[in-house]
Amino acid sequence: MSVVRIDSTAPMSCEAVVRPAAPGDLDAVAAIFAYYVVHSVVTFEETPPDPAAWRERLDRLAGRGL
Question: What is the pTM of this model?
Answer without folding.
Answer: 0.71
